[in-house]
Write a structure and sequence with these properties.
The chain is an alpha+beta fold. It folds into two domains: 33 residues; 100 residues. Helices cover 44% and strands 22% of the residues. It has five helices and six strands. It has a three-stranded antiparallel sheet with strand order 1-2-3, with no helix packed on it. A three-stranded mixed sheet has the order 5-4-6. Helix 1 packs across helix 2. The longest helix is centred in the middle third of the chain and has 17 residues. It is elongated, with a radius of gyration of 22 Å.
Length: 151
């Protein structure tokens, strides 16, 4: 590790501990040349995840876009930002764990609906109405009936 003060290439690790809820490691290092200390972070490099849209186009997975769509569905509802961020993290982690580099947008939509149904039924119906592109009131009522039948 190159020292940020004197550019010497050798240092020793003085302290090491988990950071950011265990997703990275924080290391305190000491330069073997100038003896100054500095901090480095070690994270696992994840491969980019590509989303295959309905029209066949591909784009990089964007957790902020996922979070934005859930925020719209939860507007004026009592769902905390922490809950939505947790859901977005869980969905991203689930997709990364599948080891597939491409995922269909429909699969992501189903995961979001599954999570929102557990948190807030109104947000679930709002998201489903956009995601499933309800054409008329009958398809909307049909979805509500399915939700009621599950109770």
């Amino acid at each position: 590790m190159k020292c940020p003060y004197c550019a010497h290439l050798e240092s020793k690790v003085v302290d090491s501990r988990p950071a950011e809820e265990g997703s990275s490691i924080r290391r305190r290092r000491e330069c073997l040349e100038c003896h100054k200390r500095f901090t480095t972070y070690e994270i696992v490099e994840s491969l980019p995840l590509m989303v295959v849209k309905r029209d066949g186009s591909r784009q990089a997975f964007d957790k902020n876009k996922l979070l934005g769509s859930m925020l719209k569905a939860c507007e004026k509802r009592s769902v905390s930002m922490d809950t939505l961020e947790r859901i977005a993290d869980e969905i991203e982690q689930s997709l990364q764990n599948e080891l597939e580099r491409e995922v269909r947008s429909t699969e992501i939509g189903e995961l979001v609906m599954e999570k929102l149904k557990e948190v807030d039924e109104v947000a679930y119906v709002r998201f489903a109405s956009v995601y499933r592109k309800f054409k008329d009131i009958n398809s909307f009522v049909s979805e509500l009936n399915k939700l009621l039948a599950e109770k």
